Amino acid sequence: MHTVGTTISCRFLTRIILVLMLAVGVIAQQTPMPTMPPVAPGLPTFLLQPPPSALPALPAVVAGPPAFLLEPPSPVRWAVAMAAAPMLPPVIAGGRIFITSVPGVLSAHDLSDGHQLWREEMNPDHPITADSERVYVAAGEAVHALRAQDRAVAWRTPTGTLTAPPLARDGWVIVAPAGRTVALRATDGTVVWSRDNGTQRDRAAIAGDTLVVPTTNGRVQALDLNTGATKWERRVGGVPAEALVVGDRLYVGASDKYFYCLKLATGEIDWRIRVGAALRGAPASDGERVYFAALDNLVRAVTRVSGAQIWQRGVPFRPFSGPLVTEGAVLVAGPVTSLRFLLVRTGREARTVAFAEPLVNAPAVGDLAGTIVVVGVTGGLNESWKLTLASGAGPMPLPPLQR
């Protein structure tokens, strides 16, 4: 009796489950499935997901370092080997680089790629100077003018041994034989005037119709450029170096470790600054500020009118020469692998140009297709010398360098 009751209960339970399953199926068939709304007119097609077969194939992943680890491109555009060590710093003029190397070879190189255009055996006594048409070399008690394009001799003028580097500017070549100042015409080497003037050690400067001459007797002289007549002369506290003229003022450092500002019209000392170290090379200016470097490894910026110091910046080397000013930056170089550009307003480092080996003398700055470029000679203990061109900045106008 117990077995029969259990069997009936199980059958009854099974029937109830079947009825419930059939009911759920009927309800599912009668309930309508929700439909997707039609695509609104004007809906961008990129929001519609294409079928997987229409998706473009992704490129294979290329093995390599992450993008954020990639180094920026090197500013060095080219470097060409030199057969011997340089004698003097390079000069840029007319799309060419002029450089002298031991034992006395003057060579010209194309600024765009560094290839040698010509070479001439010549042993200069002083740093050379050049313009777009000629390169001027003081050698063998004469000044030689070679055509920049092919090294042909344009003219040669006997002058005697020079005591200061020649200056070529505005159609003039100014030279300084012992105790004299001589003005030559750049086109043909004709002596326009010559005068006794005291010994000159540093290069003269031209400003309009005025020639500024620093002499070793402690005087700064202003001469009429066309005639050589004296306009004024002023004694400073030491031997003056190469001067800079900006507007109506003249700026010059002297061996007494002072930096002077003179009025160009009269020679009156407007102000002077105690530096405390011998100045290095000529000052530079951007028209608002004046910059100079000294052997205390400091680069200083002062206001052009009052001489008030704006900033000073230490560099970890002894500068080769005075600073150079390009658009918005002051360039200072020394015997290291890093060339520094400082912001004119603050002195903070704007950028650096790195070379493979240390610079061996002062670089030259020029313009190549609207881009500021720096040309220097590098080398080391292995006596491997290279003439190297690097970009100093992106495309920007390059005003004439003021020194």
Give a structural overview:
- The chain is mostly beta strands and 403 residues long.
- It has a domain at 288-403: Lipocalin (Beta Barrel), CATH 2.40.128.
- 7% of the residues lie in helices and 43% in strands.
- The chain has one helix at 2-30, and strands at 76-82, 91-93, 96-101, 105-110, 116-121, 129-130, 134-139, 142-147, 153-158, 167-169, 172-175, 180-185, 191-196, 205-207, 210-214, 219-224, 230-235, 244-246, 249-253, 258-263, 269-274, 279-285, 289-294, 298-303, 309-314, 324-326, 329-332, 338-343, 349-354, 364-368, 371-378, 385-395.
- It has a four-stranded antiparallel β-sheet with strand order 1-32-31-30, with no helix packed on it. A four-stranded antiparallel β-sheet has the order 2-3-4-5, with no helix packed on it.
- A hairpin with a 4-residue loop joins strand 19 and strand 20 (258-263).
- The longest helix has 29 residues, at 2-30.
- The chain is globular, with a radius of gyration of 38 Å.
Please outline what is shown here.
This protein is mainly β and 403 residues long. It has one helix and 32 strands. The longest helix is centred in the first third of the chain and has 29 residues, at 2-30.
